[in-house]
Amino acid sequence: MNVDETMGVTGTGRVTGIGVGMNTGVNSGLGAGVGASTDPGAVAITAAGAEVGDGAPRFPRQRGDLLLDVAAVYVKERQWDVFPGTWLEIVRGMERCSCGDFNCPSPGGHPARPDWAAQATSSGVVARRLWSKQPLASILLPTGRTFDALDVPESAGCLALARMERLELSLGPVASTPDGRMLFFVQPGAAAKVPDLVRHLGWAASTLDLAARGVGGYVAAPPTRIGGRGPVQWVRRPSALNIWLPDVEELICPLAYACGRDAAAARRRRTSG
Q1: Pick from 27, 116, 135, 208: CA 20 to 30 A from residue 8's CA?
Q2: CA 34/CA 64 separation, integer angstroms
């Protein structure tokens, strides 16, 4: 089953079914409509959601695991730096971000302190100590260190991912955020290259909704939940065979093409409306 078959996009651009990087046909319990993709490096998932892979790193399920344990696994298995962010709390019967802002644009999914870059750690022991102080803190990963992230609209990301699979491109982990974005993990240094790469492909960077998160940035990692919108999820979860991330040059063409189609469709909707 390929990505075209497992991903459905609604008229609003939201994905209704996300292949989560598994090579089985068994749904993982991550939500309705979730299917399986052809990622050969992913672990198998039983109907109960337990990983039964063949020697691949035992990445935790996206729900039901302690955030402390998940953060420690990211450090141990991927050598990713991690740091705790804000969390969600109930105030007068309403869910709000621990930062105290009722209008927080990313409730429970942003840094909790200004020196977060210095707080990020690659030590599992330190990570456990940080989350033991606040077990509900979101898991945030600084970009520009062991990876950069290419950030595109979900509808464009689905189109690009389908094309990448047809071309049999090597892929790293891919995440989907509850605000309708997809994040493609690539080698660090991508953020500095993207503007020139896009121009060389004939696109004006300002016309494409394609950004790169590099030095000074961060991404929220599964299973972090952003307000009432839902959790960040893996479309292609980290596996034994995607330890080595692709260079941005390998993915930029299908991503730019998909973002260009997305932008053209948006212009047509505006003119026809």
Answers
A1: 208
A2: 17
